[in-house]
Structure formats: structure tokens, C-alpha cells
Write the C-alpha cells for this entry.
Amino acid sequence: MPERTVGILGGMGPEATAELFRRILDITPAKHDQDHLHVLIDSNPKIPDRTAAIIGEGESPLPALVAAAQNLERAGADFIAIPCNTAHYWLHELREEVSIPIIDMIGETALRVADQRPALHKIGLLATTGTLQSGLYQRAFAEGNIDLIVPSEEQDAVIMSAIHAIKAGDHSVKDAVIDVAQELMARGAQGIIPGCTELSLVVPAGSLSVPVFDPLSILAERAVSLARGR
């Protein structure tokens, strides 16, 4: 089966988009340039803020998301990966506007957690206010016997501040994010999901004493698998 072309619908934020591309490169078995995958990237940082839209304080990003997805389809992408958790709020509507598949990063993450043996029953979720309020992860985990532990209102403010800092290029907030993750672990979390692609940049695998289920890495793995015909 011929290789498929990966389309990355990015810009939310740009560093997370670049990180997805880097992770795709890292896990692609290649000895020469020609062994790597064909990847098309539409990185549009002008897409309206997703959290602001979900909580009713900003315009919908859907038209911009649709435009980017259609750009990728016209350019030859065979499927699309979106390195933004909160943007998955519009996944259903977005899928209706293109004829190529769009990977469900949140659904893939839920499957990864559900496949763990021994089974895990409590998972801590770090995410934007928009993702938390949208119920995206709650719905993805609803069918499994897995409870999501989410930050308190005060901890949510810490996480949102950290996300904004990371978007501005400041990774020194890592310790604050790790502290919130450890507080979720103290409440019983047997694993942590950095459910915002900016958080993926500062909560790598091995940074905690419990498993880190990184949606950005899971998305990269799924994209490589699909592109290689698996």
C-alpha cells in the first residue's frame, strides 16, 4: 500500500504544531530523507481562541478550522491531525466539511488508557478551561470504568496561566504544572493526561511517578501508523 500524506492543521499554538512534526520525524523509521513521510502543514495562529469561544467570550474558530482543513485536502493530504485538544470540540462539524479522515486525538488517548494492563480506574486531566468545561474527555471516557480527576478552580487558574506562558515561549512554568499533576496524584490519579498540547511540552513521559498519557505523542504515533498504511 502506498504511503499516505499527513496533513497537520496547526497554529494552536505554533510551537505545539512544530512539536507534532518533530515527534512524527522522531518515530518514523528512516535512514534517508526519502524514508520520511510527506507532511503538509497549515499553521494558522490567527484561528480564534478556542477556550474563549467555548465559554461564550469569543468568536467561533470553526470557519477558520474548516478553511485550513479544506486547504490541506486540496493540497493532497490523505488525512488530518490536529495538535490542539480544545479544537476537538468542533471535530464533528469539521469532519462534515472534508472528505478525508480527521484523527480523533482525544478518542485515541482514551483508547490508550483503556488498553493499559493492569487496568487503571482514575486518571488526572490537565487541560484548558475550555476543554474541561466542554466535557470532551469526560465523554471519551464515559463508556469505560475510568474516573477523571480534574483540577480545582484554583488549580485550573494555575494551569491556564502556565499555558499562556508556554505559548509565549516561557517553559519555566513546568514546576507549577508538575505540582498540580502531583496534587491530582495525591487525590488518586493513577496516570496523568497533559490534555493541552502546550502542556505536552513540559510534562514529558517519565516526569512523574505515574504514567503520562501524552495526546500529542499518541497523535504522532497514530499519524505515522496511518501514513504507513497500518
Notes: The chain has two domains: 6-105+217-227, 106-214. Strands lie at 6-10, 39-43, 79-81, 122-127, 147-149, 192-195. Residues 153-167 form the longest helix (15 residues). The chain has a mean pLDDT of 96.
